[in-house]
Amino acid sequence: MCGIIGYTGNQPAKDILINGLKQLEYRGYDSAGIAVLDKDAGFIMKKKTGKVAELEAAAAEDKTEATCGIGHTRWATHGGVTETNAHPHNQGSVTICHNGIIENYKELTTEYGLKKLLKSETDTEVVAALLDQFYEGNPYKTIKRVVDLLAGSFALCIMFEDQPGKIFAIRNVSPMVAAAFDGGSIIASDLTAVINFSKKYFVVPEYHILTLSESGIQVQDLKGRAVEPEILEVNWDITSAQKGGYPHYMLKEINEQPEALERTIAPRIQDGLPYLLDDGIDDAILKELKDIVIVACGTAMHAGMVGKSLIESKLRIPVTVEIASEFRYKDPIIDSSTLVIVVSQSGETIDTLEALRLARKKGCKVLSVVNVKGSTIARESDYVLYTHAGPEIAVASTKAYTVQISAMYLLAARLGYVRGIMSEEETKEFIKKLSEVGEIMKRTIDASNDIRMIANHIKKAPDVFYIGRGIDYTMSLEASLKLKEISYIHAEAYAAGELKHGTIALISEQVPVIAIATEDHVYAKVISNVREVKSRGAYVILISQEGKTESEEVCDKQIYIPKVDSTFGVFATAVILQLIAYYTSDAKGLDVDKPRNLAKSVTVE
Ligand code: M6R
Q1: Which residue out of 349, 356, 401, 481 has the highest number of ligand 1 atoms within 8 Å of its CB and is therefore the one to mutate?
Q2: What is the model's pTM?
Q3: What is the mean pLDDT of residues 561-571?
C-alpha cells in the first residue's frame, strides 16, 4: 500500500517527484504529497487529497528549484483521507514519507510523550516525531535508534533539514528499490518510478540505512559496515509501464497477454518438453513431494485453483488451495513432504509472505510463482518460477493471472513427466497445446466486439451471477472478483450444480447469469443448470466453445471461445471474462484502473 519516492540530483526535484508518483499511483490514490528540501528556504511541502493530478495542479505555481525531495501517494490505513493525514509528515527538523504500518505507534506516543506534538492521526508522524526528538546531527545514529523501537513494516524516506541534498532510507518488509545514475540517485516503492533514470537498480536490503546524494548511494548495515548491494537489470522499458495508446492500463494489459504468455512459456521448453532447471527447479523436489499446498490471495489464489484442478485431474496428486490470510492462523497440516507453492504478482503481499515464512518454519520447501524480480517473496523462496508478464499497473489483475496459470501448467507438465505419470509423447503434446494458447487468446481478443453490448446490459444490474463446473467454476470465482472490484456490481460465483440448493432463490426476471461451459465432460450438466435459471427469468449469457450453439430457449446471448482441448480453454475464457468486467466498468464511467478503496499491492495485514 502507498507509493513512496525520493530523488536527489542536479535537476529540480518537484516535477520528477510528481511524475514518479504518477507511475506509483496504482499503489494508492487517496491523497498525495511532496516535500523538497531547499537549502535556503528549508522544507517546502505540498499535499492534496485525491489523485496525483490534483497535487500536480496545486503545485503548478510553485517555482522551487530545489533538487532534493520525497513524495508519497497514499492508501489510508491510520486516519481518514485528509490533507493533514497525507504524507510527507514533518516534525521540526525532519520530514518523512512512509509505506507500511507501525504497529506500536500508540505505545511509542505515550512512552515518549509525543501526543501534544502530533498534528495528524497517522502512525507515520510518530516516527517523524521520534526522529526529530533523537536527532543530534547524526542521521545514521538517529535512524538506527528509532528503527530499533519500531514494530511493524515500513519503508521510510527521510530528510533532515541540516542535510541538504541528502535522503536517508530504510525498510523492513515494505518494498523499495533504488538506483544511482549520472547526476543523481532515486529510490521508490517500485521500478516503474525508477526506470526512467536507470535500468540498473538494487532491491534495498532490509534493515540497512541508505544515504542518497547527487554523487551516488551509500548502503550501511546496522553495525555501520558498508555494503555493496547486488545490482539487477530490468528487461523492460518505461513504455511497458505506460498506456501506449490504450484508454486504460487494464485494456492494454488484457491485450498484452499473448506476448506475456509467450515470454513465460517459450524459454521453458527444450526439445518439446518442459524444462525448469534454468529456474533452479530440479526434478528431485518434484519427484519427492507427497502433496501440494498452494497459498495466495485474490486473483493469484484463483490462478492457484486452476492449478489444483489441473494437477488433481491429470496427475492425481492431492492439492489444497489456501487463502494466505487464513493459512497463517490455522496451524496448517503440512510437513517436509509438502511442496508449498506461493503465487503472487507483486511478490510483496504481506499475507502471502507470512504464509511462506510459516511454511518454511514447518520444514516445507517453498516454490514461488512471482512476477516482480527480486521481490521479497522471490528472495525468501527455495525455488522461484518467474512469470514474465512485465509491469502490471491496473489494480485489477489480468495478464499476471493468465501467466500464473501458464506457470502452473508448466509445473504440472514437468511434474507429470518426471513422475512417469505422463509419457514423453503425452508431455510433448501437452506442451505443444500450451504453446498455442497465446495465439488462441489473440483470436479471442480480436473477436470480442459483442462484449461491449453485453456490458451495456450488465451495467444496469445490481447483481450478477457466474456459474460453471470444474475448472469453469474456478474461472467464475475470478470473473466475479473482477466485476466486483472495478464495476462495483455485486457478483457471485457459484458451482452450477450447487445453485439449486438455495441461491437460486435470488434469480428473478432479468438477473444476469453468466454461465461458463467450456469443458466437454460437464457441458450437458451445465446446460441443465442454465435451463433452471432461464426458466426463472434470468438473462443468460453463455460462454462455450465454437460449435456448441444453444437456442434462445437456453440463453439470451452466446459468446464463443475458439475450439480447443478443454484443458486449455481457460486462457481464452479468462480474456472474455476480463473484457466483460472491463467494458462494464467503462460503460458505467468508472475509473477502471484505480477502483475505489483498493490498491495494487497489499502490504498490510
Ligand atoms: O501481488 P499479488 O498477486 O500477491 O496480489 C494478490 C491480490 O491482492 C491481487 O491478485 C488482487 O486480488 C487483485 N486486485 C485482483 O484483481
Answers
A1: 349
A2: 0.83
A3: 94
